[in-house]
Amino acid sequence: MNLTVNQSIQIGMIKIGAITNSSFLQIGSAGVIKCLSNLYNTGGYIEPAPELEAISEEVSAAALVPLSPPS
Fold it and tell me: Which among 23, 1, 6, 15 has a CA at the least distance from the CA of 66?
């Protein structure tokens, strides 16, 4: 079965906190999404990575990027 989807999407602003190894961001429609996540220790590490430092409020505010509509 074929399905044709016509859509118009307007996003004024989008804030993405984090995208991890097994995450994906989808805007709009997709026919089939097959998720696959593999984790490999290619560096031979034996300890967990150090914790991230907290992001300051001014850096967090600067990370917001307004999306303008197409002209």
Answer: 15
